[in-house]
Amino acid sequence: MRDVVLPAAVTAEPWSNGKGTTRELWSTAHWRISLAEIIGAPAFSTFPGTDRLFVALTDPGVTLHLGGRAHHVAARTPVTFGGDDVVTADTHGQRIEALNVMVDQAHTTVSYDIQRGAVTAGIRPDVAVILGGSTRLGRHALPPGTLVSAQVLRRLSVAADGVILRLSFVVA
Question: The CATH number of the domain where 70 resides is what?
Fold first, then answer.
C-alpha cells in the first residue's frame, strides 16, 4: 500500500451490477476499501461472505433501504451490514460519494472509530480515510476519500472540522 492514496489518482470503474462507479483505494485478499459515486436510487451489488462498512461522505447523506426498512444515514456516519444483504440507496437525486469497506467475514474483522478534530488516542489503525473537513499533510490539503497509512496519520494536521475514519483489520 502506498502511504497516501488520493481519490483523483484512482480510475473509476463501474459497479459489478452497472448501477454506479467505484474507485478501489486499497485491497488485499481479506479486505477492500473503495470510494463510490452514487446518483439516484441504485441497488448495491451483493458480495456474499463479506461484512460491509458504509459511510456517505457527501451531505445530506443517503437513505439506505435495508431489510425492508428505510434508514436515513447522515454524512460521515458509519453503518454496517452483510455483503449478501439486499440494499438500495436513495440519494434523493443528489450525487454523493461514499466509502465502502468490505472484509472477508470468515477470516477478517474490522474495528473502526471516527475522529473529529485533532487525532487522539483510540484504536491502533492500519489505515485511515479522510471523511471531511480540513486535513493537511504538510502544505498539502487532503480531500475527502483520501486513504492514508498509519505512519502518515501521525503526521496529519487536522482542523476542528476534520473527520477521519480509522480502520484496524485482524485476520484470523
Answer: 2.60.120.10
